[in-house]
Amino acid sequence: MKSIYMDYAATTPVDPRVRQAMEPFWTEQFGNSSSGHTTGQNAARVIESARQNIANMLNARPEEIIFTGSGSESDNMAIKGIASSLKDKGNHIITTNIEHNAVLKTCEYMKTEGYKVTFVPVAENGIVKIDDIKKAISQKTVLISIMHANNEIGTIQPVQEIGKLARENKIFFHTDAVQTFGHIPIDVREMNIDALSISAHKLYGPKGVGVFYLRNHVPFTPLIHGGGHEEGRRSSTQNTPGIVGLAKAVDIARKEMQEEKKRLTEYRNRLWQIIQDRIEDVHMNGDPQKRLPNNLNISIEKVEGESLLMNLDMEGIAVSSGSACSSGSGKPSHVLTALNLPDNLLRGSLRITIGKYTSEEEIMQTAKKLSSVVAHLRSLSS
Known about the structure:
Blueprint (H helix, E strand, L loop, with lengths): L3 E2 L10 H7 L1 H4 L10 H21 L6 E4 L2 H15 L6 E5 L4 H12 L3 E5 L9 H7 L4 E5 L13 H10 L3 E5 L18 E5 L10 E5 L25 H39 L3 E3 L10 E6 L4 H10 L2 E2 L15 H5 L4 H5 L1 E5 L6 H22 L1
Parallel strand pairs: 1-11, 3-4, 3-5, 5-6, 6-7
Antiparallel strand pairs: 2-8, 7-8, 9-10, 10-12
Helix pairs in contact: 1-8, 3-8, 4-5, 8-12, 9-12
């Protein structure tokens, strides 16, 4: 039985072109970029080329790109690094109640350090209202951290308007763009973004490498001290193969993003239509229009999400009941809870995310298998 992967929001397979670009840097060009000899300096040049490449994708400057080990690390750097450097000016942080745990738990930690955090609620479509952010701002607010798009329900936040509001109030603005970078356009200048987080494995790059974009002149206190790498902002020997892989993934995304966005939107809409035709009492979670092209988060009445997940897995279909970083906790999704869904929809939720290797046949097979699994589970409880 051939397996069907429908969990691209959790991670993506490495593109063969990315893997090929990385291979020489494990064995032939293995130098440490901090070394002064030719082998080391060759690695340094490759890293700086990658830095420029990623900066171009964001309309940033190369010195504003800091390589990290993950998107979660980048989120931590943004919140801890910026807020702690501004503690003499204020101690208030604003975020939303549907952020990734890398942001939510970092904000909870900051509360133990004497900071106040406002978790602004979102509307039932998963989108935060600008007026609610505006009401939360105080004279002590130093940072706003709101994700570009949600990792569970795929809703895209009004980042440009949030950034404008932050800029008008002289507050720094960070956005977690882990789900969006390489999938939809981002212009940090146009969108008034001061800090941004990226993870390579969400755009067909390798795991274990990320980016923290930090606009020039934004106050920042490093989290990691040591050899002074990344201009002293993130000490640690750079992951040269990973950085090369990320840069190659960015190259591919730049060329293919628009066409891929169109294809995935068509496939997602087709999948949703077939599911509605085959299954009664099914609901889409999140905004139907302002969402990532590959994301379909649904709730099905009279079934349990975990039972759906396990039964689909036995049928060879990999989907998710929420964020891969917090699945298995046994608790309802904090994102869906924030949408004020009734208990029966909270329990019957499923996240289906497609990607560049998803075929039309896989769309049809997924809808067919889901329909039969739901019918089977409902028959057991009737």
